[in-house]
Design goal:
Strand content of chain A: 15-25%
Mean pLDDT of chain A: 91
Radius of gyration of chain A: 34 Å
Structural class of chain A: alpha/beta
Oligomer: homodimer
Chain lengths: 886, 886
């Protein structure tokens, strides 16, 4: 053992906040508070290094540290003029674990350590407060037995409750009398003896060393090890804090409480707190009695109140953040036990940050860094009123955020009818949705499906049109025949009200009060602050004029992904699209495409016009064509039924069989890896040609109206230079012809998605033809891991996350090690050939903070995400720049 | 223009074979033959560099080179004592293109250049052979018009045939008389005038310069450019060879022919040749008359025969290879026009190579390099007799090699019945096969399907059990109801004979004579030679004892891939496997697995025993489980039918609906990217546990019998270290327990497949746990390109190959640029952590020569391929080592 580590014990007055790794979070904090002169019950900290040493040879280390601990106690005895183990006026301690990072599984607090059968009597006499003395001893017995010795807490609660019950139905702990407490103590000791096989330790030193030993051991219990492995927390070891007790349970002139320097739920600058008189420890949080307010404190403890108010300002000023303070009042004297940055709601966080900038307390950068970027997207959607009393019926996959209430309807036609004719709020409930259901999805207020994952049809469409969706709720059993669904015993019939929460995946029976989002002034101010701070550009994934408006409203500087397939799925277009797919000849196909052309042109015209010269990246048709066709099995069943019941003419049958044949020809075992993306354009060039014609006609018409347009054509699913070159050469020709025919000047770009691993591997070649790269991280993640999102999330991914094989869902937070490695490779190779190559992300990762940080670090130019994620992205992008400058 | 390139014309006597890039293949060869003293009609070559210069400024370059050409002609005039353009005894030339690599699209030969209306009379007089003179002029007119001027040949053939027709039904060209020829010539000239608008050029110099110009131009015609782009041939330019004519058509004392130094079809060391008297140029090859044999030549031209025999020995000795010689006899004098390495059948190639080593003519290495590795696998399978007169009905995908004849049967039960009870040769014909069809596949002699690609169920099973298969024959329409299939108008009824060729994909109506493979002594000698030469180890992909025997027979040194799913699909096991899949609890699943355990153990026991201590790499269960279940749509249709016709009891219905529910739960949108590989083992650990138990029990029992065993357990589809670690830790425990319970010593390894792009990216991490890497290049190719083999080959890959987007099918020849890059990365990272990491390929690329060459270059330890590809792999591995040493 090195000499450097020979100091195992630090008095609070010896530490500082910078020694967090050595003293643990709690120990460093106690030292810091001591340093700034707060009235802190003093004590000492055993270092984390001691804990690690302990694991080399527990017995030896305990022997080595004992004298140091006793020395520290001696110093405290002098300071407080009390003796540890004294029979009259003993010094008592609390013992707490305190690792450098807070983590579950670690040993809990033991209070009132040092009491025994004798000294409890002395304390009673000395304080002239029997109730206090026996209440403290009772608590100590319970905590030591539970926390240190591992006897189940339930046994103690049972005993305690049996005495409370004798006092009446609503009896509180304070209703127990001294004799009750004495009897409880006897029963506790008997229980201890029975469970452990020896009497409750009466020597204070034994109690202390036992407790310290237990803290050290708790560092390596199973739960802690698992947690550390899953969260990649290093093996720091834990510190142990031994602190002199102060007593909030010494009578009605004492108490314990919690205070916040600002309102943690709204962020308002108003001091907020709760306390209980004659209580100790966790009593306020545990809710054993209804706590009192700060106003009541002003009445009850005016001096303490004034002191606390003053301290709160001082602390906020010192820590430059809203503080959450734990305090104890012992006989009218205020002690601070803890202060830390307070937890707050997302809207409070925004208000506090912006206010503090205005108050000159923090910088813009600090304000931005104080926000949990991810959580602020919750501010944009309706949510279930947290005060509402709800019973969750089932849990599905949260596929599109927001909560909504409506009547459950089991098919799309009826949904449309009820919604449009009777103005009902309808939630469409289906096993899954298909393109046939698009009109139902549009008419509904939200959708619930039994099958499918976050990329299922229902999920994609719902996110696209901004409606809440819960999908893959496998525990609901939909019975289409009887038009109802069941969850266990509960039956929801058609027309019954349900509520779904697409933010959390919850499904609730009946109507539930919802909370509406309110975009505050501060929210917009905060977003504006990000503009000076971030480097990454922010674009939106937007397929419709509505999306485009939303994107601008939230501050997007362009569209990074405009998917054209959505435009193909609109109800009035689908029949034409199906005709195009079923075409037997190129001519037939062109005929159908000619009908789609003006529709697509209209779409692009509107979007370009809204975006007023900001870049709009349009992805050419991407999905497998059978996505536009009805379900094969259902069609087969229909035909068989019609045949068996003789209700189909030969001519109709022929037509159906034709359809079946085409569907069979188009069928793919793995559509994700089939005829889609640029492969479609290579197989049937006329589809791409129509799209490019529509894009450039729309753009040129706007140019004629003197409105600026910046189209960027994105060719999806490229894996080889030759693919890109073939498609691009063909399309540039059409672009040029169109522009010439309008006789306008138009700047445009042709680029590609990087979403196939091979594209990243040969990015140098591809960059010779591509004017920009847009990383399609959804597909890239699928191909790099070799699993499809739908199948993974529906099957094994939950198991992977549960077993800790993966820490995060790679479809939510970008896999930097694998997928990210490919991205870095692609950027390096691509810019090696074309130094000004513009690179962005347009997968869903573009709106996820850790992925945005990565995007910043690897030098992307922009991220693109759904309109509702843009505020998150703006904050995360600013945070990334601040964090990585540091 | 550089001075270095100022020499544009090389006389044959100035060249040598090393100047192939400058003189083209033909020019260098003519020079070489001149150098070794053969009787070659002399001439000169215009260099390829001249051709490239020509493209800078055609007119100028033609002017520059003309004097050089005329000088060369003057030298030839002196040598042959004739004048170019002389009216009595003119020197005539042939003009031929000659690029460094032979390629289609280049200009053809022009013979007899220099004749005109006047000199043809002179020649007639001088040779006293009117027929010869006018025949030569007729030929020249035709060739020049067609080849140089691009007039369609058909027009000339029409004229010629009209004259032949007048001579009788079977008239030959030699039946034409001088007057006929004169009239033909007049008609030819008129045709020329009509098509070109000017008379046929009468000046020999003009004829020559025109021809040279046409050769240069042909280098950049569309066909040639496309071919070069597709085959990545550089822009070398072409040379032009101008050679003095000798005449095989000078009468019955002249002739022209072709001779081989060994039999090109058997490889036997016996001289072989064919010739025609009184003929010129391509007459022998074109088959205008039946050629005569070498025996007849011995009679007809005894002197020439002796000379030719002597020359053949000399040439073979010089070129160290079997020669294909073109010769002309002019008035009894033998001229050699060309000699080159002769084309031969695969079996001849083997015999010639081995014989030549024995004769001391070439080294082992040269022998091995002389073999086209790919083609020799044809020697192992039955094929359609090349002499048979067949009509191909349709073309499918060649999924499992070999040709076979049998009666078409449309379901598996009937196939089994007819095959086992009536001993019929049955070809199972299905839209596609499912696990339910395995008994039919086993009982059949081959399988034909309408749908699916090379990795479809039918294809995989057929290859596994070594039966011919043609799949995805989309032009056949199977009508199961009427038990027949149609192709256009042709109907094949159940019981009709058909023949399928799994090597080529051909489907033929009726019985066809087949040729049986014969493994010669030389074949085995050649394979044995590879052992001293190659570095790569060769293993087999073998799932059954039959495969294992075959693998040893062909010289495999272990099993590189033993797939266990095949074992699950055997007919008597499938119900148990299905029970295992449908199990509702872990207990139910274990119960089913307990029944499978002894079966699997038996499989492994047999294979280990056959492989006698050679390493056997066993892959744990890999495919998605629904592969073991019936078709969902079919099941739904069946249930609906039973319900509509009231032919099902409630109890049966319940059972069916249970099955439907399970299938729905297991259903995956993209099974290739779903719950399979190690994900199965993580989700249901009991499956892997059973397999590992079976492997180690089998191994330990053999150890007890003193038979050595080397199991290598391969965990499939790993993408993250954490997956591998979890599975491996769990399985090693079982392995150790099993070994302990048998109390034996057993060496074993745990390794992984690298078949997910991410695995290659994090191979350094994975190598910390994996004792070997086996590249699953099939899956790795799919994931790297982002397309599934089935869907790609059935849909867009043919278009990609046709359009030249890809040069080769990446599922056949490894994509070195993309997939190969990942492999190199994985090897580098893996060996960085574990320097002795054993790496191999077990995808189908392991049996493909260019992929084997790559495997050698990137330092793999072995390749593993199907037993029938092992000879190919051994030769290709040896070639790789020789080639890369050079």
């Amino acid at each position: 053992m090195s000499t450097e580590n020979d100091k195992h014990v630090y008095d609070f007055s010896e530490g500082k906040k910078e020694l967090k790794l050595l003293l643990g979070g709690k120990g460093a904090n106690l030292a810091e508070m001591t340093n700034i002169g707060l009235n802190i019950p003093q004590g000492f900290t055993l270092t984390t290094a001691t804990c690690l040493k302990y694991y080399e040879d527990p017995k030896k280390v305990m022997e080595i540290i004992k004298p140091e601990i006793l020395d520290a106690i001696t110093r405290l005895e002098k300071k407080y003029n009390k003796k540890f183990g004294d029979l009259k006026n003993p010094l008592l301690f609390s013992v707490r674990s305190g690792a450098p990072m807070s983590m579950p599984g670690m040993m809990d607090t033991v209070l009132n350590l040092g009491l025994n059968d004798e000294s409890v009597k002395g304390v009673a006499e000395e304080t002239n407060n029997d109730r206090f003395a026996y209440d403290s001893y009772r608590r100590f017995l319970q905590m030591f037995s539970d926390v240190v010795m591992g006897i189940e807490l339930d046994h103690f609660e049972e005993i305690l409750n049996s005495y409370k019950a004798k006092k009446g139905e609503d009896a509180k702990d304070t209703d127990l009398e001294v004799d009750d407490l004495k009897q409880i103590i006897e029963e506790y000791k008997a229980l201890y003896q029975k469970k452990i096989g020896s009497p409750f330790p009466q020597t204070p030193q034994d109690q202390l060393f036992h407790s310290i030993d237990a803290v050290f051991k708790s560092w390596n219990n199973k739960r802690a090890i698992t947690y550390r492995r899953m969260n990649k927390i290093p093996n720091y070891g834990t510190a142990v804090n031994v602190q002199v007790m102060v007593f909030g349970n010494k009578g009605w002139g004492s108490g314990t409480g919690v205070a916040f320097t600002r309102d943690p739920s709204t962020g308002e600058k108003r001091k907020f707190g709760e306390y209980l008189a004659n209580a100790q420890g966790e009593d306020v949080v545990a809710g054993i009695r209804t706590p009192k307010t700060m106003e009541e404190m002003k009445e009850e403890f005016p001096k303490v109140y004034d002191e606390l108010i003053g301290l709160m300002d001082k602390l906020e000023d010192h820590y430059k953040d809203m503080q959450d303070i734990e305090f104890t009042i012992e006989d009218g004297e205020l002690f601070i036990l803890q202060t830390r940055n307070g937890k707050r709601t997302p809207s409070a966080a925004v208000k506090i940050a912006v206010d503090m900038v205005k108050e000159g307390l923090i910088t813009k950068e600090q304000a931005i860094m104080s926000i949990n970027a991810d959580s602020i997207s919750d501010l944009l959607f309706k949510s279930i009123d947290p005060k509402a009393d709800i019973t969750v019926l089932a849990q599905g996959i949260n596929a599109s955020p927001g909560a909504v209430t409506g009547i459950a309807i089991f098919d799309s036609d009826k949904t449309e009818e009820l919604a449009t004719k009777e103005n009902k709020n309808v939630i469409l409930v289906r096993p899954q949705t298909k393109p046939d259901d698009v009109h139902g999805l549009y008419a509904s207020v939200g959708v619930l499906t039994q099958f499918g994952g976050k990329t299922s049809h229902a999920a994609v469409v719902a996110r696209g049109i901004g409606k809440p969706a819960v999908v893959g709720a496998q525990n609901i059993k939909i019975d289409l025949k009887n038009r109802q669904f069941t969850v266990g015993e509960t039956v929801v019939k058609e027309g019954d009200y349900i509520t779904i929460d697409g933010t959390t995946g919850k499904i609730i029976k009946g109507q539930v009060p919802l909370v509406f989002p309110e975009l505050t002034k501060e929210f917009n101010e905060l977003l504006d602050m990000t503009d000076d701070v971030k480097k990454l550009g922010i674009r939106a994934n937007a397929d419709t004029p509505t999306d485009a408006y939303k994107a601008l409203e939230f501050g997007a500087k362009g569209i990074g992904l405009c998917r054209t397939e959505h435009m193909f799925m609109a109800q009035e277009r689908l029949p034409v699209v199906q005709k195009m797919i079923m075409a037997k000849t190129t001519e037939e196909r062109k005929e159908a495409l000619d009908k789609i052309l003006p529709m697509q042109k209209g779409d692009f015209y509107d979007i370009f016009k809204i975006m007023k010269g900001l870049p709009v990246t349009i992805r050419l048709l991407d999905p497998p064509l059978h996505e536009f066709l009805p379900d094969y099995t259902e069609l087969m069943l229909e035909v068989q039924k019609l045949k068996l019941t003789n209700s189909i003419t030969d001519e109709e049958l022929k037509e159906k069989e034709d359809l079946i044949h085409t569907m069979r020809t188009l069928h793919e075992e793995n559509p994700m890896m089939g005829l889609r993306g640029c492969r479609l354009g290579i197989t049937w060039p006329e589809i791409n040609e129509m799209q490019v014609k529509a894009i450039f006609q729309a753009a040129c018409e706007l140019k004629k109206e003197n409105i600026d347009v910046k189209p960027e054509i994105m060719i999806p699913l490229v894996g080889m230079l030759s693919e890109l070159k073939l498609v691009k050469d063909q399309l540039i020709k059409i672009a040029k012809e169109t522009i010439e025919s309008y006789n306008v000047d138009l700047n445009y770009k042709f680029g590609t998605m990087i979403e196939i691993p091979r594209a990243a591997l040969v990015a140098d070649k591809i960059a010779s033809e591509a004017e920009f790269f847009s990383f399609g991280t959804n597909d890239l993640t699928q191909m790099t891991f070799g699993f499809s999102r739908d199948d993974a999330e529906g099957k094994f991914l939950p198991i992977y996350l549960e077993k800790g094989i993966m820490k995060e869902n790679p479809f939510e937070a970008l896999d930097q090690e694998g997928v990210g490695q490919l991205m870095q490779m692609a950027i390096k190779k691509g810019r090696g050939v074309r130094p000004d190559l513009k690179c962005g992300i347009c997968g869903e990762h573009g709106g996820e903070p850790s992925s945005i940080d990565f995007a910043h670090r690897i030098g992307l130019n922009y991220v693109s995400c759904s309109p509702y994620r843009i505020p998150v992205a703006r904050i995360a992008a600013a945070q990334a720049n601040i964090r990585n400058k540091e």
